[in-house]
Design a protein that fits this description.
heterodimer; A: mainly alpha; 75% helix; 0% strand; B: alpha+beta; seven-stranded mixed β-sheet; five-stranded mixed β-sheet; 16 helices; globular; cell membrane (chain A); membrane (chain A); MetI-like (chain A)
Chain lengths: 338, 538
Amino acid sequence: MTAGAPVRDRSGGLTTLLGSPALRMVGKRTLMAVPIVLGASILTFWVLSLIPGGAAQQLLGPEATAEQIAALEQRLGLDRSGPVRYLQWLGGAVTGDLGNSVISGQPVTPVLAERLAVTGQLVGMAFVLSLGLAIPVALLAAYRPNRLFDRLSMLVSITGLSVANYVLALLLVLLFAVQLSMFPAIGFVPLSESVTGNLHSLALPAVAIAFPLFCFYTRFLRGDLVDQLQGEDYIITARAKGVGPWRVLVRHAFRNSSFGLITVVGLNLGTLIGATVIIEQIFALPGLGQLLLQAINTRDFVVVQACVVVFAVIAVLANLLADLLYAVLDPRIRYGSR
Amino acid sequence: MRRRMHLPALLLATAMVMAGCGGGAATTAGDGPAEPSGPPQQGGELTVLEDAAFAGGWPTGLDPATNTTGGANVPQMSAIYGGLFRLVADDDGTNARVEPHQAESSSIENDGRTIRITLREGLRFTDGTAFDAEAVATNFRRAVDSPCTCSPNWPLADGGITTDGPLTVVLEFTRPYAAVINAIPVTNVNWIASPTALAEKGEDAFAIEPVGAGPFTVVSNQLSSELVLERNPDYFKDGLPYLDRLTFQSIGGDQPAYQALLAGQAQAYEGLTTTPLLEQAQSQGQLSVAVQPATSPYVVQLNTEAAPFDDPRAREAIYAATDFDAIAQGLFGGQYPVSQSFTGPGGLFHTEEIPGYTGHDPERARQLVTELGGLEVDLGTLGAYVAEQVMTALQTQWQEAGITVRTETYELSTLIQEFNGGSWHAMLQTAGSWDPAAGVGVNFRFDSNSPFSGVTDPELDALFDEAAATVDPAERQELYDRAGEMIAENHYAPFGLAFAPANLAVPGVYGPGLTTQIPPIVVNTGVHWDEVWREPQQ
């Protein structure tokens, strides 16, 4: 099979699989991810080295003498040159060992895995909530534009977009934890301990992250749907064929609008990661964001680098997933015509 | 010194206060310490919140010799290790004194050059090994070599840490250091770790699961996040601790902590500094609020070694332009006292009025500024709620006196750089501790050898050394009074708001330092966790 040929061979043979455009795209993007992740780790290391006050000074505070700082730097291995430390870290990282925290001496990998589970669940819940609500609301709003529901949804969206995550988080706590005692204000219950407790503990933080996203997605999708419905030839054709308005909206317009939505969802990942750093701090959640913030505050470059690498890998994977979804939704991409 | 919440969060806090938000059952105290309805009860659990930017961070673990943030982690350390000595006070915070705890007694000999610390008999670490003089001496040697700034600043003679029998540790100094016992509770020598457990586990593992002889033992420790402790059944004080379980939870600042308390997610919070929340807590009576006796006043540090403050007239102009009484009333509703001394009213050797201290005199300030041909000042401080409020007010007051003021809020690392650069003008900081000779005391702000002092005055240095070496409290008082006068006469740095953080607790929780007052020995009050108790829940 030649490159770019349609994937019609359903034999499942290895040759066919390896030759498929989708798989070649996955392979290509995976290879592209390596310099991206490497670049992110080098950039992080360099930026950390520019921040005044090293880990030792940061840990010891303003009372520290030069001798105390030097002694701690020696103990933490920070007296070695930057490139040497980076290469040592990189050597371990390629074998899956993300090194030991320069501050605590603890291995980073298990800590990271533990924290990632919390953040992963939080982000997952936020995505499910935001998209799960935004899609039906946007569809309903676009179904009858400029009517009451549409105007209300736009009002909520604009209001939601103008409220910062941390403000919303504090207001949610005030209402649902303090006043109504419905959800916990802080803390995390592991899934292994209690499923309901776990969902309960993540409910408010997930909503705090999800709400601005919901508003953004609703606004974005509604606008795109209305554009599609008002001007596209395929919509006119579908209507001319007698397809009902709801079916035109869902089966035709939404299918096309979903490309844009997938793109913004992928791009939103960075915002989402930024939000988790603040939200985890407010809700005292032992996630990756909290770990990253602590590591930045203590100039623990090994942990910061590990976190950044994980975030970079997640971002690359999310973009890859978005591209694969394009392929699933758009036959032109699936068959390699693009 | 501590970093605090950023402005937007504080604005929200203020808005919420104005809106009178909050809920939950209203019960106890507004202003004063809560009164229990009966005697202390055994049992129960308690979650204590600690600000992630200060006590809620323990990134290097909890081994006294390798922990680098020990000065901030006094709550955790005290709960695990207990302490050889501790600061106690009457319930209203008066009559504060350092008393032996795991130590039985101490004596100062040889004019303050020899200190003998005798331990209680029969003490055991929670691993069953003996808490004896040898164990304490081993800990002292490790603590002295520690990179932590909580390491003691002892003028030790060679081989100056020895034992005299199974229960006595002897310290030999090269010069008299009579203030040593008062300084111990703020340094890592106060916390004695089991040498046997340390050898068996190794330093890294020990830092995560330390073993001491304190009221609680470690169940789990997630660094800078959550520390779960349980009752030590073999604690040396019969019937103590009261609590079965104690959890320290790190949280991102005053506002989330306050809401978590109201929501019943935690039962105590140490170190509240956001004034609007403090006022809300006091006025609504939903929580018990213990505002601690202030020991550490704010001071406007003036760099006397560089222009413009190498000119005494410029320094005097700052004294005359500054009205801390107006700031205390206008910004903080008189919540915090104003001090002319480097130790606040809750500290040792505080003097209400310092002879020669020139206060607010705007006319004099304007006259001096004219005489100087103008005065331009860079005023900085660390990013903290109270400090930033005070800095802004000072800027206004000084500008009214004709002084051009540029303000800057620094991160810790850049603040240190500014000091090391030597070209800074004025820095608003906190000065002093409960005993001026201990911790971030008067030397730290005024000694010629301190990198964070803008003053080089050998006569003042000699006074500080003599005061730290003197055994007799009356003589120490005289020496510190003289030091205070010298600072005032030379207009080295005007003192101001004597500020101390508050501790909050939900109704039904009581304990020394939590619902009663104890002066902060440096920053936060040392809560006596072994005596903290909780009324049985319905």
